[in-house]
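Lab notebook: predicted structure, single chain.

Context: the supervisor wants predicted structures on file for every construct in the current expression panel, including those that have not yet been purified. This is the next one on the list. No modifications to the sequence; it matches the entry in the shared construct table.
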Amino acid sequence: MAYNKNREALILIAASKLTNVPVVDPESHSRLGVISQCIYDPERGVLVAFDVKLNSLLPLHQFLAFQDVQSFEHHAVIADEETLITLAELPRVQKIVQSKCSVMGQKAETSTKKSLGRVSEVMIDNMSGQIIQLHTQLLLSKRIFRFDDVVKITSRAVIIRNDLPLIKEQDAIPAEVSTA
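Prediction complete. Output recorded below exactly as produced.
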């Protein structure tokens, strides 16, 4: 089953499942590389690009803009070879990478600095790349937050509103989820 960006239904993709997934050219069916990192715009809360480690003996990387992905398959991301470009060709993405502002694995806390643990998962909309949910984990406690509850993403932490009811992962209503 494919998770095509042009589908009408919203499908959430677990961003952690995209790491080490191959990028495949639809024409030649050749493996271009593997996704090594998802890059998010911290101001808009959107997945904007993928860092792709090329099939090479050398540690070469190119970047794939989210809008250039044709579809998300179960075990591959489909994109034309010519859409893989250097970081210098994506100035907005280059600025984000240089700021070292990440989401996955980032410290999560409330506006009053109460620790919520670390971001353990990022759920994105397959059509727009918009972050829909953040999952956090603090010891054995797992929580899910809507992205609307995020106040700010900084290079130090993901800041989440203070006045939220406690919703644990087991109490959440499951969405249709893709593991790509």
